[in-house]
Amino acid sequence: MKLQNLLRDVSYTGGALPEFEITGITADSRKAGPGVVFVCIPGERADGHDFAASAAAAGSPAVLALRDTGAPVPHILVKDTRLAYALCCANFFGRPAERLRMVGVTGTNGKTTTTTLLKEILEYNGHKSGLIGTIVNMAGGKTLPSHLTTPEPYEFQQLLKTIADEGCEFAVMEVSSHALAQERVAGCHFEAAVFTNLTQDHLDFHKTMENYLEAKEKLFSMCDLGIVNVDDDYAPEIIRTAKCKTVTYSARYMNADYTARNIKLKNDGVEYEMVGNALIGRVSVPIPGAFSVYNTLAAAAAAVSLGIPFKQVLEALHQVKGVKGRIEVVPTGRNFTVIIDYAHTPDALEKILKSIRGFAKGRVVALFGCGGDRDKTKRPIMGMVAGRGADFCIVTSDNPRTEDPQAIIDDILPGMDGPAPYVVVPNRREAIAYALKNAQKDDIVLLAGKGHEDYQIIGREKHHFDEREVVAEILRCLPVHGEE
Ligand SMILES: CC(=O)N[C@H]1[C@@H](OP(=O)(O)OP(=O)(O)OC[C@H]2O[C@@H](n3ccc(=O)[nH]c3=O)[C@H](O)[C@@H]2O)O[C@H](CO)[C@@H](O)[C@@H]1O[C@H](C)C(=O)N[C@@H](C)C(=O)N[C@H](CCC(=O)O)C(=O)O
Ligand SMILES: Nc1ncnc2c1ncn2[C@@H]1O[C@H](COP(=O)(O)OP(=O)(O)OP(=O)(O)O)[C@@H](O)[C@H]1O
Ligand SMILES: N[C@H](CCC[C@H](N)C(=O)O)C(=O)O
Ligand SMILES: [Mg+2]
């Protein structure tokens, strides 16, 4: 590709650029080489400008930067290197988003579930769809591993190209606030975008809820239609700042465009009547929890807006299966129930506990921790919601990453002002063993925070850790007693 084509629609200075062929683009000097343009990104830990000289030494023919770096190669100067990087990556892969009908879902909780439901609705109705998100990326028949909820620009555009090349009509994706703040999806236009909710998380990165909201708002200046959960406190701001048309959904207000009535929350799913598009239909999905009402409303509103007939959408919802690690029941063969869930924010933990309380016949036992190297301010709040929402808590580790597990727990405990007694068992495997050994008849034991993850990150190392396997291993050695 010619350098000029890589820079299509990128505003830059730095003088006339020589015409040359480029073979790649990277923001990581360790991947630089002949023909590969190096983009300098100032980060939290390092500044890419400091690596321009080594990229040039490795053979990079040009650097894209905010300022002169002194590297002996032509400089393409821009005001925002993350933005320029995203646009260049789109150009490099031939702007694959233009061959796809793009749908983005943003919000603190519910993105993975909503995108998965929407993909299933579209596919059920014969529309081949790619999926980009936390658990996995899918391109037609290909299943590709996911490392971030929203990939970085190079991997993202490469993935979109694969999705388009595989003959998909739609790309349904999670758009994280990190991605929006870092312009990872710049250059893409979305036919529809969903706002699920905004509650506390990621303040380590965004610092304030205002910045977090501002990041989410960006998506609604990049789409034709916004689909907004008006039961969320931040919905008015999303609608006020949106540069697109909006439709609304709500489980509370019957004047929203899509609503739910006669809601029945059961231990094996939810049922309700959806009212939307001047039609009414029965919804039944095998995913329990009040938030299943929201996630199905969001997916249905998006699908109808994309042209799938209402009746077909509801028919598709009847077929959906659950999402891995989202309120997933683990078979135990005992007289208590174990549920794995990805609740790792205060709001998600509060809602899952409330949902479980709604169908629990016995005690609700919450086993949880908080991720290391992530928002510290959410830790005591998670302690508070667990202490108030469960009958018994087991405070343990999530992914401690580079933090001391006990220090994370020490941040959680001051929030635990609720009536629930608790124990602290820092090792998660031992904590699960404690939970299972002490489980009583009809208890529901919630293993919160790790959901689909099959690893635990301790230090910088990822250790295999699949809670389904851990539960099975512990139960194998645990005598059955007191069961009827
Ligand atoms: C908090 C966050 O988003 N961090 C991202 C950020 O890292 P950073 O600012 O620390 O980058 P840095 O290490 O200082 O490096 C700056 C630049 O120097 C370059 N560099 C660095 C070293 C070197 O030798 N040579 C070199 O060129 C780096 O490639 C980079 O371009 O910029 C990096 C480069 O773009 C990202 O890889 C990194 O994401 C990391 C992997 C991450 O874990 N992000 C998570 C928190 C994330 O994005 N999560 C969201 C949200 C999930 C959710 O909603 O739950 C997601 O979408 O997954
Ligand atoms: N609509 C919702 N509102 C509040 N909580 C929800 C909702 N949907 C799911 N949850 C809770 O949040 C957890 C994570 O759900 P999901 O994976 O769908 O969200 P996500 O936004 O993709 O999360 P992440 O930001 O980590 O990718 C679930 O396991 C459940 O406990
Ligand atoms: N995408 C989220 C996932 C958190 C999952 C939880 N298990 C944790 O490690 O905190 C993050 O990186 O903040
Ligand atoms: Mg997700």
Keywords for this structure?
Mur-like_cat_sf, cell wall biogenesis/degradation, single chain, nine-stranded mixed beta sheet, binds ligand UAG, alpha/beta, 32% helix, binds magnesium ion, binds 2,6-diaminopimelic acid, UDP-N-acetylmuramoyl-L-alanine:D-glutamate ligase, 23% strand, binds adenosine-5'-triphosphate, UDP-N-acetylmuramoylalanyl-D-glutamate-2,6-diaminopimelate ligase activity, six-stranded mixed beta sheet
Please characterize this protein's 3D structure.
This protein is an alpha/beta fold and 484 residues long. The protein has 3 domains: 3-92, 3-Layer(aba) Sandwich (Udp-n-acetylmuramoylalanyl-d-glutamate--2,6- Diaminopimelate Ligase, Chain: A, domain 1); 96-319, Mur-like, catalytic domain (UDP-N-acetylmuramoyl-L-alanine:D-glutamate ligase), CATH 3.40.1190; 328-476, Mur ligase, C-terminal domain (Protein-Tyrosine Phosphatase, Chain A), CATH 3.90.190. Helices cover 32% and strands 23% of the residues. The chain has helices at residues 3-6, 52-58, 81-92, 111-124, 153-165, 177-181, 203-206, 209-218, 235-241, 291-305, 310-319, 346-359, 378-389, 405-412, 428-437, 467-476; strands at 24-26, 36-39, 63-65, 75-77, 101-106, 129-132, 136-139, 142-145, 170-174, 190-195, 223-229, 245-250, 258-266, 269-276, 279-285, 328-330, 337-341, 364-368, 392-395, 422-424, 444-448, 455-458, 461-464. A 9-stranded mixed beta sheet has the order 6-9-5-10-11-12-13-14-15, with helices on both faces. A 6-stranded mixed beta sheet has the order 16-17-21-18-19-20, with helices on both faces. A 4-stranded parallel beta sheet has the order 1-2-3-4, sandwiched between helices. α13 links the parallel β18 (364-368) and β19 (392-395). The longest helix is centred in the middle third of the chain and has 15 residues, at 291-305. It binds ligand UAG, adenosine-5'-triphosphate, 2,6-diaminopimelic acid and magnesium ion. Residues 111-112, 133-134, 149, 174 line the site of magnesium ion.
